[in-house]
Each structure stands twice: as C-alpha cells, then as structure tokens.
Write a structure and sequence with these properties.
By secondary structure, the chain is an alpha+beta fold. The protein has a single domain, classed as outer membrane lipoprotein receptor (LolB), chain A. The protein is built from two helices and 13 strands, in the order H-E-E-E-E-H-E-E-E-E-E-E-E-E-E. The strands form two sheets. A seven-stranded antiparallel beta sheet has the order 4-3-2-1-13-12-11, covered by helices on one side. Strands 5, 6, 7, 8, 9 and 10 form a six-stranded antiparallel beta sheet that branches. Strand 6 and strand 7 form a beta hairpin. Helix 1 crosses helix 2. The longest helix is centred in the N-terminal third of the chain and has 38 residues. It is globular, with a radius of gyration of 21 Å.
Length: 215
C-alpha cells in the first residue's frame, strides 16, 4: 500500500510539473508580446485620441480612437463610418482600414487581437538582413477577422523593436511577403516604422502624413 501511494504521489508530481511548465510558457509568451508593444510606445496609447495617416499614397485615414469614428479619403471618394456599426456600405472600407492599421500598429495588434496563437521564442536569421534576431510567430485562428488563418513571422531585436516580418497567407509554408521595418519615428511616444522594403529593394510600402493626437 505504501508503495502504491508513493507511485501515485510521483505521478501527480509529474503531471503537476507539466501543467506548471505549460503555464510558464504561456506567461513568457504574453510577456514577450507585451514587451514588443511597450518598446513601440504602447504604454502611451491610453493618451491617444486620434490617429491620422496615409497608407502608401493610396488611402488617407482619420481614426477617432475614443468613438471609433473613421474617415477614409481617396482620390475618388470620402467615406465616413463607425466601426461599431458596419454594414454593406462600409464593410469594404473597414477591410481596408483593418489592413492599413495592422501595418501601422502591428506591435500593438500583438496584444489587442483575440483568437491568436503566439509561438515560443526562438533565434533565427532574418530573411532579408540575414542577421540573427529574435522570432515569434503570430497565427490567427480560422474563425477570426477578415483574413482568418494567416500567419506572421515577426523578427525583433534585443530592444524588442520589430525589424522584419514574413507574412504567410493561410499559414502556408512558403512566404507570401517578406519586408523590413525601417525609418522609425516617434509620434508623441508612439514609435512607427514609416517604410517597409522587400529584399530586392524595388518595393517600399510607406506611411506619410502620420499624426498622433493626444487627449
């Protein structure tokens, strides 16, 4: 009987250690994403009332972060809508807004977005610079957002600033797009990469007219 009790105790201890290890891994993942967000000024976001920017010279946005009122200005049209009330008239504009905002504020999306899985931290050579950087993978579930199931391999330095990423549509193995995060600029405590270049240097997605208004 004593032997049986001893074996049972060891088994419970082993299971307990596995559960504890899993919890620590989750806590570590959360801390890493929070550190990335904080390195880009997330702690100052609570003071932000309005964000304006132009995405690659195509679409200009004004976003009231308090009310979720959105203004989209293009060469053809101006659209006003509220993100709390998406309908058939505003859904295409909202899809564009979510895409453009994701590029602008991906460090914050790491802690904002639900229905995601964050991989464990690893060190790998970045695809463009070929330098060793920290890497995590952000994976969206198949039920979340306008583009479910997509994956992003995010490469960041020891200061937790994002330097490169790889987008893999539908979590496929081959990269759909790889680009840099360059020309960081501080806008009232929010650090934003204004340029994103590919490996060949013949493609560059730019943000212009960036304004971060505080309360």
């Amino acid at each position: 009987m004593k032997k049986l009790i001893y074996i049972s105790f060891i088994s419970l201890l082993f299971i307990g250690c596995k559960n504890q290890s899993g919890t620590n891994s989750i806590e570590t993942e959360i801390k890493i994403t929070q550190k990335i967000a904080n390195a880009h000024g997330f702690e100052n976001w609570k003071n932000v009332s309005e964000v304006s920017f132009t995405f690659n010279g195509k679409r200009s946005w004004k976003w009231n972060t308090r009310t979720d009122d959105i203004t989209l200005i293009t060469s053809k049209d101006t659209i006003f809508y509220n993100r709390k009330f998406i309908d058939s008239l505003s859904i295409n504009a909202d899809k564009a807004f979510i895409n453009d905002k994701f590029w602008l504020l991906v460090p914050f999306q790491l802690v904002w977005d639900k229905g995601t899985t964050i991989s464990l931290l690893s060190k790998e050579n970045a695809p463009i610079s070929k330098t060793e950087l920290n890497k995590i993978t952000l994976l969206y579930s198949n039920e979340v957002g306008y583009t479910p199931g997509d994956a992003y391999d995010i490469y960041f330095d020891n200061d937790y600033l994002i330097k490169e990423w790889v987008f893999r549509k539908g979590n496929q193995n081959e990269p759909t797009l790889a680009n840099t995060f360059e020309k960081y600029q501080d806008f009232n405590g929010i650090k934003i990469a204004l340029e994103h270049k590919n490996a060949e240097g013949n493609w560059n997605l730019k943000f212009t007219d960036v304004i971060i208004n505080l309360n």
